[in-house]
Specification:
With about 775 residues, this protein is an alpha+beta fold. The protein contains 19 helices and 40 strands. This is GH92 family glycosyl hydrolase.
């Protein structure tokens, strides 16, 4: 941390204490008051503290730095809690991503003289960025405020679905300006902006677009901006020179006095004179056109009542967060509702008021299918969110799951490759990460009863994705039953993940009565066995000749390895569709449990993964900061030792989550880390999405009431819950003993009560029987 950190942490602690003192009023005010958007803004959480609404198109947030690509990892959301300056407020951000882009339409209120470059954060006054103190920040669900100390400007931000709302209170004795900089982006580098345009229209509306060659090449983002005060003057700049954005010199520094500019390095400065009242600004964005951005502003941005829009944002969050009522300590409630808040940030709406969106073919499409009009959503980190984030939405918001799936089908139909999104945002594909995990997202929803989308079109899209040979060497996978490492990197991980995706596709085909498709993909789901090496006891990559690649080091992770963001210790447990088969392959219950213990209890040098920035949150080889480990603690359930699952979950919850800025052990990954916390706090987890079962762990809150969309309530109660009673002694479901370690989705939807009796010592008999375990390919129950 920087030298100012002790004071900042003192203010954080003071703010937390104020929250603790006010918990009695929280229930009446709504759960939005229990959200702390600071959590995850430090360390590697990669969350942003700014204003947004559930699944909204706008994420209006401060950017403390937009460094070059090589040094940008910690700034994936544009903001790091330890930074001393703010360079402006931009309108688009990812929450918790491991890679980044966005940071569109950056504005900075300035009192007094205007500088045109951000400057050096280590040299106050060298540019337009400003120092600030955390003591002046207010971070709430749907609202952010800060004082820019170099200007004496109080900045307040709120958001609606498509509009960012700003209120800036300037010193009355200094001229007020708003600077708009179309050059910077998150993960910035020279030449990232391919082209941009900026214009001031006759009615004072400022609009424009820019095209970037970032994570999604050729992305176009347009905007429209209006002010509640007339401009006294304005100047547009084309700052292009031989070196774009960094160190501008030469004739490009000259202002241009036109109504519009086109170029790759545009800025605008809008002057308002001395203001006795706050300057209000409202900004709409569009992935399609300036005209659409103006239409969004006209329809969704009526009036100038900032406080009313803030109240609307708070109300939207209170409604969304009311899906679950939990009791617990103030810290538990803060962590729980902040997790639920983070889980409801993505995917984001990516469609204009007229129903238009931009697809992966870069063309403009209308959100219309056989069922009629729908809302198009994007921001899909599929490798992360299929595990728990999207299953959480199936449970809490099946209506939105329907919209999400219709969006996925539309994206597949628009794709020039004919496959479902892999890692997409604003409709465009990045091809980041592995697997075809949109398939289990759709299958999980269908298996759990979500309807309202074209199931035949969905299954067709799923099969197309699972059989597109050029993607990740699926051609060899379909031919050989595995991905050969001499043809494709990270081949062990790809083989394992493809096999699970195949299984999930098979489950949906079976439920639809498509038995030929079911048989094909159920057979492919067993391909995990082609990665299993009984000689070493690990999953490994094979060569095209069928031999395992040598030499082999199960601890190695990194570029050129057999695995994606992991090593053999982390990936050898990835058979969620057939844990019973994996138990058998490892030699039975006792050996399986012993190897799990070895994983968690290993003595690992903290610097072992220093060159693999995503592998964080280590407990032995277990890495909670990255998704391949997320299901592992629940695997004791499948080998007759659920009490060990309970102990490991406590170890993870105690060490990997905290109600402070660095309170996430790794990237939140568009809600996955947070969704893991929510399920685990409730006492169960979807180890195998696309089944209708949840593995039971243990609860971490004394009471939780899930208010289901069907009008029923499912309540989880934990008796004697405290640190002295970490183990499950007994469980009842609706008053009857529950001796199994799984819960069915339908049992939750029926409403009722799941009651845990906690105790000091483990109950080694509860849930130990083979018949009590969750299902698997190798152990289906009749």
């Amino acid at each position: 941390m920087k030298q100012h950190a002790p004071q900042a942490w003192l203010m954080f602690a003071l703010a937390a204490s104020l929250v603790l003192c006010s918990t009695g009023a929280v229930a009446a005010n709504g759960h939005a008051a229990e959200v702390d958007p600071r959590i995850g803004t430090g360390g590697d959480g990669h969350t942003f503290p700014g204003a947004t609404v559930p699944f909204g198109m706008i994420q209006l947030s401060p950017d403390t730095a937009m460094p070059d690509f090589k040094h940008a990892y910690k700034w994936a959301a544009g903001y790091q809690y330890g930074d001393p300056t703010i360079m402006g407020f931009s309108h688009t951000h990812f929450s918790g991503s491991g890679h980044s882009d966005l940071g569109d339409v950056l504005v900075m209120p300035i009192a007094g003289d205007v500088k045109l470059d951000p400057g050096d954060p280590a040299k106050p006054g060298s540019g337009y960025r400003s120092r600030f103190s955390h003591a002046s920040e207010v971070e709430q669900a749907g609202y952010y405020a800060v004082t820019l100390s170099d200007y004496g400007v109080r900045a307040e931000l709120t958001a609606s679905t498509r509009i960012g709302w700003h209120r800036y209170t300037f010193p009355k004795d200094r001229p007020a300006h708003l600077l708009l900089d179309l050059r910077p982006s998150i993960y910035d580098y020279p030449g990232k902006v391919l082209w941009s345009r900026l214009r001031v229209r006759a009615d004072g509306t400022v609009s424009g677009c820019r095209t970037t060659r970032g994570w999604a090449p050729g992305r176009e983002l347009c905007f429209a901006m209006r002010f509640n005060r007339p401009m006294v003057s304005r100047t547009l700049y084309d700052r292009e020179s031989d070196v774009l954005y960094k160190g501008f010199k030469g004739p490009g520094n000259q202002p241009e006095d036109h109504d519009a500019e086109n170029g790759r390095a545009l800025e605008g400065v809008f002057d308002f004179g001395k203001l006795a009242q706050p300057l209000l600004v409202k900004v709409a964005i569009s992935p399609v056109s300036e005209a659409n951005a103006i239409a969004n502003l006209d329809q969704d941005g009526n009036g100038w009542d900032f406080d009313a829009r803030r109240a609307d944002a708070t109300a939207a969050w209170n409604k969304a967060l009311s899906a679950i009522d939990v009791s617990g300590t103030p810290d538990q409630r803060t962590q729980f509702y902040t997790s639920l808040y983070h889980a409801m940030l993505a995917p984001t709406l990516s469609m204009d008021v007229n129903g238009e969106y931009r697809g992966p073919d870069h063309q403009v499409h209308k959100a219309q299918d056989k069922q009629g009009a729908f809302d198009f959503y994007s921001s899909w980190s599929m490798w992360d969110v299929y595990r728990a984030e999207e299953p959480l939405m199936v449970l809490l918001r099946p209506d939105l799951s329907t919209q999400f799936i219709r969006s996925l089908i539309a994206a597949q139909q628009d794709s020039p490759f004919g496959i479902l999104p892999v890692w997409a945002y604003q409709g465009l594909e990045t091809w980041c990460m592995i697997g075809y995990h949109a398939v289990p997202v759709i299958a999980d929803a269908y298996i759990k009863g979500v309807r309202g989308f074209d199931a035949e079109a969905a299954l067709k899209a799923m099969v197309a994705s699972a059989t597109y040979g050029p993607y990740g060497d699926l051609a060899d996978y379909m031919k050989l039953g595995y991905v050969p490492i001499d043809k494709e990197p990270e081949a062990a991980s790809k083989t394992l993940e493809y096999a699970y995706d195949d299984w999930s596709l098979a489950q949906m085909a079976k439920a639809m009565g498509r038995h030929d498709t079911y048989a094909t993909f159920e057979k492919r789901a067993a391909n995990w066995r082609n990665a299993w090496d009984p000689g070493t006891g690990f999953m490994r990559a094979k060569l095209g000749n069928g031999q395992f690649r040598t030499p082999f080091d199960p601890t190695y992770a990194g570029y050129g390895s057999d695995y994606t963001e992991g090593n053999a210790w982390q990936y050898s447990w990835y058979v969620p569709q057939d844990v019973a088969g994996l138990v058998t392959a490892m030699g039975g219950d006792a050996k399986f449990v012993a190897k799990l213990d070895e994983l968690f209890d290993a003595k690992v040098d903290p610097g072992h993964f220093k060159n693999v920035e995503d592998i964080t949150g280590l407990i032995g080889w277990y890495a909670h900061g990255n998704e391949p480990s997320h299901h592992i603690a629940y695997l004791y359930d499948y080998a007759g030792a659920p009490w060990k699952t309970q102990a490991r979950l406590k170890q993870i919850m105690d060490s990997q989550y905290a109600a402070r800025p660095d309170g996430l052990a790794g990237n939140d990954d568009l809600g996955q880390m947070s969704a893991w916390y929510i399920f685990t706090a409730l006492g169960f987890y979807p180890v195998t999405p696309a089944s209708d079962e949840y593995a039971i762990g243990r609860p971490f809150v004394p009471k939780a009431a899930i208010h289901l969309p069907n009008g029923r309530t499912f309540t989880v109660v934990a008796e004697h819950l405290d640190d002295a009673h970490p183990y499950v002694g007994a469980v009842t479901l609706n008053g009857k003993p529950l001796d199994r370690v799984y819960l069915r989705h339908g049992e939750i939807l029926a409403g009722g009560e799941l009651r845990f009796t906690m105790q000091a010592e483990p109950n080694r008999q509860w849930g130990a029987a083979v018949a009590a375990r969750p299902a698997a390919m190798s152990a289906y129950r009749p």
